[in-house]
Write a structure and sequence with these properties.
The complex is a heterodimer.
Chain A: E1 4-6, E2 9-13, E3 18-24, E4 29-37, E5 43-50, E6 55-58, E7 61-66, E8 71-76, E9 85-93, E10 105-110
Parallel strand pairs in A: 2-10
Antiparallel strand pairs in A: 1-3, 3-8, 4-5, 4-9, 6-7, 7-8, 9-10
Chain B: E1 4-6, E2 10-13, E3 19-25, E4 31-38, E5 42-49, E6 56-57, E7 65-70, E8 73-78, E9 87-94, E10 104-105, E11 109-113
Parallel strand pairs in B: 2-11
Antiparallel strand pairs in B: 1-3, 3-8, 4-5, 4-9, 5-6, 7-8, 9-10, 9-11
Chain lengths: 111, 114
């Protein structure tokens, strides 16, 4: 099965950029998702990228995909305290389309 | 506003009790999922269902069963709760097809087994 690795914590200052990295093992992953979980809440879909893309930008969010290295990253520009949450990388294979979740990266934003 | 609703936010049960966790979605989604979330382990898939009365095992089905008698409702059952099943349980739903991975989650049910 798919293995998904993320660092567990990231601490940044308000206004800086945050970069959350993820590596995965299944080269057949076709949809690669980022989910966000705010304290006390369920997960919500943040953004996703197709495997035939290298980059996707959506306002303050930039997703970069390196298929060769099976590396996915999420960059949040001008990070705000409201961005403090757990971010999950979740690639989905072309077979089932069911995502496999990483352990999640807790983003802590300091004022 | 579309919604996935989990019936109980917090439950406390005793070892050996039978536990039912209920989940209802109002989006007419074909797929429904049960995950458990533990600190440092992320989300692990317990069971999923792609249609009424259909179920598939996920990565950690042992000690759990599920029921899907109606499209909108997916129940997780712990036949005999144990302390190692203390966890946050998350229900999700999605449409079938290439957007199967676009999951809509409930707020979670935190279960404590004493």
């Amino acid at each position: 099965g798919e293995d998904v690795e993320q660092s567990l914590f990231l601490s940044v200052r308000e206004g800086d950029s945050s970069v959350i990295n993820c590596t995965y093992t299944d080269s057949s992953s076709t949809y690669l998702y980022w989910y966000k979980q705010e304290p006390g809440a369920g997960l919500q879909l943040l953004t996703y990228i197709f495997s035939n893309m290298d980059m996707k930008q959506d306002q303050r969010l930039t997703v970069l995909l390196n298929k060769k290295d099976k590396h996915l990253s999420l960059r949040i520009a001008d990070t705000q305290t409201g961005d403090s949450a757990i971010y999950f990388c979740a690639p989905a294979s072309g077979g089932s389309y069911i995502p496999t979740f990483g352990r999640g990266t807790s983003l802590i934003v300091h004022p | 506003d579309v919604k996935v609703t989990q019936s109980s936010r917090y439950l406390v049960k005793r070892t050996g009790e039978k536990v039912f966790l209920e989940c209802v979605q109002d989006m007419d989604h074909e797929n429904m999922f049960w995950y458990r979330q533990d600190p440092g382990l992320g989300l692990r898939l317990i069971y999923f269902s792609y249609d009424v009365k259909m179920k598939e095992k996920g990565d950690i089905p042992e000690g759990y069963s599920v029921s899907r008698e109606k499209k909108e409702r997916f129940s997780l059952i712990l036949e005999s709760a144990s302390t190692n099943q203390t966890s946050m349980y998350l229900c999700a739903s999605s449409r079938t097809g290439s957007n199967t991975g676009e999951l809509f989650f409930g707020e979670g049910s935190r279960l404590t087994v004493l």
